[in-house]
Amino acid sequence: MGCKDYNLFCCCCGNASRSKLKPMSILLLGLESSGKTEIGHLIVKKQRQNFDSTNGVQNFTFNNHSFTINITEVGGNKEMQKLWHHYFIKTMAIVYCYDMSSSPSEMENSFKVFNTLISNEYVRGKPILIVGTKADLVTYNVESYDIENMFELEKLANIFGSKLKVCQNSSLDHDDLSSGCLWLEDELNRDYKCLKNRLKLDKHQSSKKHRKRLSYWFTRKKIHSELNSSKRPKTAPTISKTILLYS
Ligand SMILES: Nc1nc2c(ncn2[C@@H]2O[C@H](COP(=O)(O)OP(=O)(O)OP(=O)(O)O)[C@@H](O)[C@H]2O)c(=O)[nH]1
Ligand SMILES: [Mg+2]
Q1: Ligand closest to the CA atom of residue 170
Q2: Which residue from 38, 101, 173 has its CB within 8 A of the most atoms of ligand 1, so it is best to mutate?
Q3: Strand 93-99 vs strand 128-133: parallel, antiparallel, or unpaired?
Q4: Pairing relation of β-strands 22-30 and 67-74?
Q5: Residue 93: count of CB within 10 angstroms of its CB
Q6: Residue 33 Cβ contacting ligand 1 at under 6 Å
Q7: Counting atoms of ligand 1 from 1, which one is nearest the CA of 31?
Q8: Is residue 30 left, alpha or beta, with left meaning phi > 0 and alpha meaning psi from -120 to 50?
Q9: Collapsing DSSP states into helix, strand and coil, what is residue 99?
Q10: Ligand 1 and 133: CB distance under 6 A
Q11: Enclosing H/E stretch for 240
């Protein structure tokens, strides 16, 4: 299915009306300067105009015969990384970029961040495409399976129930990125209904948690004001015990 072009999703197979297109959301993450914006432009086949670092969020939208694909890149600097988790709940899949030309310690850091990402409750079980970028700047030969072995990616995928694929991209050759994208397309097509239901369930769970936190906070506030308003006997339970009894 799909063409052998480097588009994430084939755009040559039909002209379904926009209203019938199903939404598909993908999150594009990676450390600062790992090549996310470059990959976003390659996927949607757009010429990059701006080479600034992404200090915020950037969207790439693309339609194929049955889906409208919304790729959201969130900046990779330390401050932006703190915001990544806000986007997990709405995403069906992740494209994670790491810079193949970076030093071993930077690479290690990149996969440390990846470990935290894949273990998040709203990411577990979702398909992830890992893209090694800037392969043209690497002088030695590194294969995707070297990265899989080095960072024990298969083990991680099994623990957290996510399907993983590693591919590489260079400014000169996009074939491997293309096959990675076709893999992701297949995964999303196959599991579309499940992923849709998963997003609904996660949204429901998260608002339930939020309501619980709010009600706990209000109870605490109410009890505190009641307790502070009257003189308490020495034998009365401590404030924290009283809150526990009430909540
Ligand atoms: N040689 C080479 N340079 C690349 C490649 N991919 C990205 N770059 C360059 O690396 C720099 C950083 O790439 P970006 O795509 O902006 O990185 P980013 O991950 O979006 O960075 P932030 O938005 O700051 O988190 C840019 O100057 C790109 O032109 C590549 O495959 N080869
Ligand atoms: Mg960017």
Answers
A1: 1
A2: 38
A3: parallel
A4: parallel
A5: 23
A6: yes
A7: 25
A8: left
A9: strand
A10: yes
A11: helix 239-246
- Please spell the DSSP secondary structure of 108-130, one letter per residue: HHHHHHHHHHHTSTTTTTS-EEE
Decide: 192 and 126 in contact? Cβ < 8 Å: no
Strand partners, 222: none
Q: What is the pTM of this model?
A: 0.83
Quick one: which of 114, 108, 110 has its CA closest to 98? 110
- List per-residue pLDDT tens for the chain, 247 residues long: 334 444 555 555 444 455 578 899 999 999 999 999 999 999 999 999 989 999 999 999 988 877 899 999 999 999 999 999 999 999 999 999 999 999 999 999 999 999 999 999 999 999 999 999 999 999 888 888 899 999 999 999 999 999 999 999 999 999 999 999 999 999 999 999 999 999 999 999 887 777 777 777 777 777 777 666 666 666 666 666 666 665 5
Report how far apart, in Å, the C-alpha atoms of 17 and of each of 3, 66, 136, 197 are. Answer: 20, 9, 40, 24
- Contact of 72 with 87, CB cutoff 8 Å: yes
